[in-house]
């Protein structure tokens, strides 16, 4: 049996056999750990960290971090101070970087939780320096994202002002690392090398999950995988190299047969072309299944596995429910109370995203708070 993680939000502590449960997310921590170890091997001599922002990509910060710590990870990245404080509670001795950098007024909490901001402007360096005697931080350079980071043409000024603090990492972020042959990758690496030259003795980091697989091998001193750890494909041009981590199941709540011409769901965007056996499951957009997975004429729709058979969504994805066409599914599997699979080995996160017109990152990070989280492989 797997263990049940105590709820951090509205997360019922039940097993899949509990008749009250209508949606269960199973997180395979052994697969997560294996994915981290694989990335660590690919890093060669570089350290392998882990990005655990957004509640560890929707899978639960505390259990994910504990598994990664057991696997050997000692450096983590979060988005903001609140996430950093939660991460610090799990890992008192880990190195934790905050991508937001230094938000005005947040210095006190960063210091109290021993968090390292990724400083992305000259102003941030000055403000961080004013908090104490040469406080530690990362220096974040913008090599093309135009979101965060010190522009490359300010690298000399950054190096000068950084004398007031203790830089412990120099970093940047790829724009298109999932596109292996994108020329922008090479330009970004060259720009980063130019900035890094002014911090020659400081460890450097540039590679996210996809960056690790680039032919230039821009691993530097530290890689920071995120998506790949959680089962997302970092190489969309090739077979997925990582193990599946998240498996999502929902319970069938209602069964019926409808006649030709009968509509299903809000706004009647789908109607039956023939007599159809349908099942309603207890999952909807409030649980993170995108409305874009809605079935209507002329577009792909979401699917679920029922008894090993792919069954398409019918009509609009609503807040709490999705209707499936189970006409071809085994009768014993398509019954009230039985479970269907929405994510897992049979339907990977990339496919679920493609059918909903979105990306796998969104699928994972929006997995709803109503699911029971079941952790296995701990």
Structure description:
With 378 residues, the chain is α/β, with parallel strands linked by helices. The protein folds into 2 domains: 43-230, TIM Barrel; 246-376, Lyase, Ornithine Decarboxylase, Chain A, domain 1. The protein is built from 10 helices and 21 strands. It has helices at residues 29-42, 53-57, 61-71, 81-90, 107-112, 122-129, 155-161, 183-196, 349-356, 360-365; strands at residues 3-4, 23-28, 47-48, 50-51, 75-78, 95-98, 116-119, 136-142, 150-151, 166-171, 204-205, 222-223, 246-258, 263-264, 270-271, 276-281, 303-306, 309-314, 322-325, 339-343, 372-376. The strands form 4 sheets. Strands 1, 2, 13, 16, 17, 18, 19, 20 and 21 form a 9-stranded mixed beta sheet that branches. The radius of gyration is 23 Å and the shape is elongated.
N-to-C span: 11 Å
What percent of the residues sit in helical stretches (DSSP H or I)? 10-25%
Number of extended strands: 21
**How is the biggest beta sheet arranged?**
9 strands, mixed
Number of domains: 2
**Overall average residue pLDDT:** 93
| Low-confidence segments | 1-15
The CATH superfamily title of the largest domain: Alanine racemase
């Amino acid at each position: 049996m797997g263990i049940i993680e105590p709820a951090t939000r509205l997360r019922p502590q039940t097993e899949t056999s509990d008749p009250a449960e209508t949606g269960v997310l199973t997180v395979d921590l052994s697969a997560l750990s294996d994915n981290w170890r694989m990335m660590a091997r690919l890093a060669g001599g570089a350290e392998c960290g882990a990005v655990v922002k957004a509640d560890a990509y929707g899978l639960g910060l505390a259990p994910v971090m504990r598994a990664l710590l057991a696997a050997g990870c000692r450096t983590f990245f979060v988005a903001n101070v609140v996430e950093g404080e939660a991460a610090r509670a799990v890992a008192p001795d880990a190195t934790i970087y905050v991508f937001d950098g230094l938000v005005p007024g947040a210095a006190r909490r960063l210091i109290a939780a021993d968090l390292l901001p990724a400083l992305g402007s000259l102003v941030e360096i000055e403000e961080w320096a004013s908090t104490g005697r040469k406080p530690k931080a990362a220096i974040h350079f913008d090599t093309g994202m135009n979101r965060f980071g010190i522009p490359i043409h300010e690298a000399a000024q950054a190096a000068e002002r950084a004398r007031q603090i203790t830089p412990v990492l120099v970093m940047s972020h790829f724009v298109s690392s999932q596109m292996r042959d994108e020329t922008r990758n090479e330009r970004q690496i060259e720009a980063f090398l130019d900035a890094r030259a002014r911090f020659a003795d400081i460890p450097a980091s540039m590679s996210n999950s996809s960056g690790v697989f680039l032919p230039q091998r821009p691993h530097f001193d530290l890689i920071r995988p995120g998506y790949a750890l959680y089962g997302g494909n970092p190489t969309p041009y090739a077979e997925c190299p990582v193990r599946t981590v998240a498996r999502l199941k929902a319970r069938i709540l209602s069964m019926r047969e409808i006649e030709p011409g009968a509509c299903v769901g809000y706004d009647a965007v789908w109607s039956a072309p023939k007599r159809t056996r349908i099942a309603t499951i207890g999952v909807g957009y409030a649980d993170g299944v995108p409305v874009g997975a809605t079935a209507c004429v002329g577009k792909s729709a979401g699917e679920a596995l029922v008894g090993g058979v792919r069954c398409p969504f019918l009509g609009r994805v609503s807040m709490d429910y999705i209707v499936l066409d189970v006409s071809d599914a085994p009768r014993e599997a398509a019954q009230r109370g039985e479970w269907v699979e929405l994510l897992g080995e049979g339907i990977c996160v990339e496919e679920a995203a493609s059918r909903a017109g979105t990306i796998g990152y969104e699928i994972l990070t929006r997995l709803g708070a109503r699911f029971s989280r079941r952790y296995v492989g701990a």
